[in-house]
Amino acid sequence: MISILVAAAVGLFATLLFTPVAIRVFRVLGWGQRVREPGPHYPQHQEKMGTPSMGGLVIIGAMGFAYLLTALIRGGISVTGLLVMGTGAALALIGFADDLLKVRRQRSLGLGKVAKLVSQAAVAVLFGLALIRLTPASTELSFIRDTGVDLGALFFLWVFIMVAASSNGVNLTDGLDGLASGSSAMVFAAYVIISFWQFRHTCSALPVESCYQVDIHTSLDLAILAAAALGAIAGFLWWNAAPARIFMGDTGSLALGGLAAALAIATHTQLLLVILGGIFVLETASVILQVVSFRLFRRRLFRMAPIHHHFEVLGWHEFTVIVRFWIVAGLAVIFGLGLFYADFLTRGGVT
User: Fold this and answer.
1) Which parts of the chain fold into alpha helices (H)?
2) Into how many domains does the chain fold?
3) What would the DSSP string read from start to end of 90-134?
4) CA atoms of 240 and 227, how far apart (whole Å)
5) Helices (H) then strands (E): counts for the chain
6) 43: confidence class by pLDDT, cuts 50, 70, 90
7) Residue 74 to residues 1, 9, 154, 227, 305: CA-CA distances in angstroms?
8) Is the confidence at residue 42, as pLDDT, over 60?
9) How big is the CA angle at 113 (ends 225 and 333), to the nearest 5 degrees?
10) pLDDT, tens digit (0-9, with 9 covering 90-100), for 94-109
11) 96, 55 Cβ separation under 8 angstroms
């Protein structure tokens, strides 16, 4: 438990202290945010032009430092933890390339859709292969536990779908100051609880029906990694909250989404992520529905997609949208954790 608290504290203070440094450096480098033409509905977005972006570098750096430092203090680190962290770091590099292209081209479009998906697919497949070959991970589909449905070779396709959907979902949500970072922090807080709970109730230590078929050392390591991510995001949110002094950019959003997907796969809670990350599902679904509706019926379901912009166009203040969406994100996380705990109790688990 102390290791988890140390990782969270180190991640928190690292971003609290070094984000202002990054803001100054990024301004010198000209790494400013590019925004599309805001239009007449919410011209206040024009004010965001030039705000330092690529803050995801600070989040990933602080998270990695906190995780590795804690592992050094503990005297051990798991292969699974390294693979999960590596997946987040690799997606951060993809996001960084996307952000850098936006800066150099002086426009809001970076990597093409095909290039981004191919890059995400490569990272996902490498993560899946390494997980199967280097760890005792299974290829079964999981919800709160493994369901018994073996995906076989389709497991790698499933990993890609999870990584791409989660990373792009966070990316779509990252349109208002602190919305994606605050929502992501709640999801990683949930994975601190889930991983630590599995650590306390592994079948190797407590062979009962309610136990979890996970490695005890890996579970604790994943809890530490999730805590490091939570602390780093919380510290970054101090500077990212409205009015934001820095944005995480695709560097941060792709990394955090991919990291959440990797944690879900490693903790055997793949489908539970759909509930825990309900706000990201909502944002992604709004874009899909908008595109389908316009192409089939030439009508838009929303004033603008993703859906957080719809409410801005309706006249909601940006801060109101952010806080209310945080509430939705929190409720989704609470519901997901409730299902996780209910499953434990129905199997005769005792706290």
Assistant:
1) 2-29, 56-74, 79-105, 113-134, 154-173, 179-200, 216-240, 249-266, 272-276, 278-297, 307-313, 318-346
2) 1
3) HHHHHHHHHHHHHHHHTSS--S-HHHHHHHHHHHHHHHHHHHHHH
4) 19
5) 12, 2
6) low
7) 11, 15, 37, 15, 46
8) no
9) 35
10) 999 999 988 887 766 7
11) no
The answer as to whether 351 is a domain residue is no
pLDDT tens-digit series, residues 294-317: 998 889 999 998 999 999 999 999
For the segment 42-67, the average pLDDT, to the nearest whole number, is 83
146, β-bridge pairs: 142
| DSSP structural state of residue 1 | -
CA distances from 288 to 115, 157, 291, 332 (A): 20, 20, 5, 20
Structure tokens at 87: 């997946």
State how far the Cα of 186 lies from the Cα of 280, in Å rounded to an integer. 12
3-state SS class at 202: strand
Question: Residue 337: inside a domain, yes or no?
Answer: yes
Residue with tokens 């029906």: 209
Rounded to a whole number of angstroms, the CA Rg of the chain reads 20
> Which tokens hold the place of 318?
């940006």
In terms of residues, how long is the chain?
351
Residue 45 lies in a domain: yes
In a domain, 159, yes or no: yes
Contact 232, 12 (CB under 8 A): yes
Cα–Cα distance list, 290 to 113, 149, 187, 304, 306 (Å): 18, 33, 26, 8, 9
Q: Which domain holds residue 205?
A: 2-346
Measured between alpha carbons, how far is 200 from 112 in angstroms, rounded to an integer? 44
Report the share of the chain in percent with pLDDT over 90. 78
Q: How far apart are CA 67 and CA 214, in angstroms?
A: 20
Tokens standing for 217? 């050392």
Q: Are 177 and 166 in contact (CB under 8 A)?
A: no
Q: Is the pLDDT of residue 53 over 70?
A: yes
The Cα–Cα gap between 191 and 227 comes to 8
pTM score over 0.90 = yes
The residue assigned the tokens 């489908």 is 271
As a whole number of angstroms, the distance between CA 39 and CA 14 comes to 38
Cis peptide before 136 (omega within 30 of 0): no
